[in-house]
Predict the structure.
Amino acid sequence: MKRFYLPNILKLAIVLVFAGSPALASPCDQLKARPDQWIKREVNALVSVALTFYERDSAQRAYERVIDQISGVITKCGLADDTTLRSKYPEFLDFITTVGLQRRPDHELGFTVTDERYFAETRQYVGIPDFLLTPDFLRAVSRYETLPQAKGILRRLNANRSAESQLIFFSYESRHLGTPDNDNSFRRLLIVVPENTAQGIPEKWVQFGITDPGARLRVRNVSVVAARPRSDSTTSVYFKDYFRTYQKNGAITIKGRWELGAGDDNCASCHKSGILPIFPVAGSVNKDELPLVDQVNRRFLNYLRPRFDNYLDATKLGPGLGSRAVQISPQQNVRCAECHNTDKLGSLSWPMDSTIISSYINGGQMPYEFQLTAVERTRLYRRLVQDYFSIDEANPGILKAWLLGKDRAEKVEQ
């Protein structure tokens, strides 16, 4: 058999050709060379599983696996620092970085700093006022049957407070969510504590979970949401959940849920507007307290342009539900983003809570001042969800289009 010998220069040329072949390049090199296909595939997977998680809590682990997988590739391949990729898909990279924060065990709140650091830095804003921590008040507010006594204590406190520092309080039953310690607990006592500018204390909405009538199992949760006006006409919002501990000797103590090792939740996923308006179950508010519900909801409108201080840049979560107009009748169009945008009440962007959104729409509270039938509300809700989560290639939904940079491209063309 005749052998052929190649010159050394030709051998080197062949080696270089095969070394540069895409088939032999590393997976990261291949991805960087052709990122579009990978980005589109991952965006479709992400939006699809986000919709499933939005509709079913049982899909949380599947959603988290997708986030972890994408984040892992971005980290392994250094995609966040790839200037070419970042210039083309900044929305996608920033979004994954932002939602991926909550997957870290010390970032359950989903903020840019650890949970420990967040609570340390915001302690001055989210503390429960001392006058709500007295043994008498804590005993009275621990049960539905003694709730009138708790309100009596609050009225006596108001007798010694100035007109502008009056506590606003009422009890009600929530339409939406149970407390963090009891999904089936919907009774609340809300106390709005006006800000004290002299002491640098922001306005606080302090909410005690209340045990149902006759129930022996006591609700532990106490939530604080604080609103602090900023010089740029925005409102910084801060959160903290507390748990009450009922001692055998009758004493009641309160400590932060996180400090007790009970974990925490991503508050911003529900509180897109920071503080939420109150829409009680019909008939659950005493007649003499009904005007106070309107009063606190009018107060809510003072907290326009909510921000989460330096702990979360909500713009990295993109435009929200209802960013596109939805026609619900020949005469009426609904566009939620007219109010729910970064310059007003905050965008209803992912991650979001389906219980709250569906309850507000189907329950008649939103869209504001629209008179819609039950059928129209059901149709509107389905359309809003479809328009946001669609992965249709020809007509992508709000989230997919934004993640792929289509909104930015359209603005450039205009």
Remarks:
- The two ends are 70 Å apart (CA to CA).
- Residues 35-55 form the longest helix (21 residues).
